[in-house]
Amino acid sequence: MGDELLSIDSLHVSVADTEIIKGVSLKISIGEVHAIMGRNGSGKSTLVNAIMGHPAYEITSGTIKFNGVDVEEMEVFERARAGMFLSFQYPASIPGVQVGTFLRKSVSSVRGDSAPSAREFRKELKTHMESLNMDKSFLARYVNDGFSGGEKKRLEILQMLLLNPRLALLDETDSGLDIDALRVVADGINSVAPNAGCLLITHYERLLEHVKPDYVHVMIDGKIVKTGNAGLASELESKGYDWLEV
Amino acid sequence: MMQYPQISIPPRSEHLWRYTPWRRIHPTKVEEMPMADPINFSTGEDSVMDDSSEIGRSFIHSISKVCNLVTIDNEHLELDLRCSGHICAGELNLVSSGKSSLIIRVSGDAGWTGLRVIGEVKGTLSVALINDLAEDGHLLRCEDWTVGRDSTLEISTLSVGGILNKSDIRIDLKLNGAEVRTGIASNGHKSRHDDHHIEIQHSVGHTNSSLVMHAACGGASHSVGTGLLTICEGADGSDAGQVFRNLLLSEKARAEAIPELEVLADDVKAAHGAASAPVDSEQIHYLASRGLNFEEASTLIVEGFLMDAFRQVRNKEVVETLRTRLLVHLECLIKG
Fold this sequence. Notes:
The complex is a heterodimer.
Chain A: E1 4-15, E2 18-29, E3 33-37, H1 44-52, E4 57-66, E5 69-70, H2 76-82, E6 84-87, E7 94-98, H3 99-111, H4 118-131, E8 142-143, H5 149-163, E9 167-171, H6 179-192, E10 197-201, H7 205-208, E11 215-220, E12 223-228, H8 230-239
Parallel strand pairs in A: 3-10, 3-11, 6-9, 9-10
Antiparallel strand pairs in A: 1-2, 1-4, 4-5, 7-8, 11-12
Helix pairs in contact in A: 5-6
Chain B: H1 22-25, E1 37-38, E2 40-41, E3 45-46, H2 55-63, E4 67-73, E5 76-82, E6 87-97, E7 99-108, E8 112-121, E9 124-133, E10 138-147, E11 152-159, E12 164-173, E13 179-188, E14 193-202, E15 208-217, E16 222-231, E17 239-248, E18 254-263, E19 269-278, H3 281-288, H4 294-307, H5 316-335
Helix pairs in contact in B: 3-4
């Protein structure tokens, strides 16, 4: 499709001296949607956390290049400002910090000189919140504090829409969502996808009914063991993972 | 009644005086009765206040040349207390009724300030005291509140000024249906010493109280939070809770958080807790992933942590005033 955005080559990642990712290579270009599926503990979340630069995840060998630049020495905030976005599986709560304040600061940090004026920001915010069926009272609440699972995921997607990333990493964004919320979240992902690279981590085919992946990868024990098209997700739904084990 | 300086100096074994003893908070030598300039109150009328057998209150009473009465009834009031001179002192009588709110801003460059407050609440009062004194000032603050039948007191403190502060706040829930919600936020930086002692007494049953104190401890600061919750004999149906949390921002900072309960009734709910911890690395990471560098993320977390002390304050106007003042303070700290 478009230009190569993310290039992962022979990546090995350890957490607390235990190797989790054991040689992953992956390329994502602008406009491509990739999905990674796999059992619990297979290393899916570790991969996206390593891409985003979580300090607990140590790259022991291999490279991650974003827009041709090796990101290993980049701080997390620098990756975000460069256009990476991670929708967290379990986003942290920040008691006392209002959602509205947090979003304004985040947009200002990530979009820098091209950040919207206060008026434009409010307009953008209103548009995106309406598209996600979010009430404006959300803005006065504290970030992820006392949120339901679905509210947390909507806030993650709202941030993605506002930050307009080049690379969107979505870690089980579909978990805990009812059918209506899933559709709303999927619409959000689809609106970003044409101008970004997307990497979805999911357990279920149901998200992929709404967001059509160009590639589906299966991860087992820290390795991508199979890559296919959207049909692979259906196959996994019916056959499970056993048939892919060596 | 024995008056200062006849009152004997309390020993450090007393809970109240353990961390900031009387000799330390007294502005001169303890046997002295220094001359004091009056606190300049922005509104109110002349009044008188009885002496007290408690040493801090009696001392402030003895050196004060001003006692100010403020009556509020179904209104929002902002009260400025300007403190100047080497030693400055004053007394404030507050009488509240209806649904009222009050912002008390204590500011100025006084070397030492003594403030005594007696408050009486009928109805609902949300009061916030902002300690905005010059950064080398000392403050002794003594407050006594009584909350009447089916009345509610929200009492908030934002403590960001002064280098040596001692607050002694006592609240008596005297009649059925009385309720108090207390929130204290203290930001420690440099060598700031900030001591809050809060006593809440449930004199009768079916009264509610909550106390939340959050202290952010940076530099070589020292935060002290001591609480004494007393549920008197026969005060059944009381519901009380105290939580002290400290956010440790540097290795040199110190924090004490000591909630104490004295429960003499049988059928009550009483809970207390204290915790001290550094900034949560997952919060930092989350904010970093949204483009905030470490300093920006830390500042936002501290802001949130301090504002969270006012979570139970329902008066939005008061909360927004506290938030605005906190933001100005944090911005000033960043700019040095």
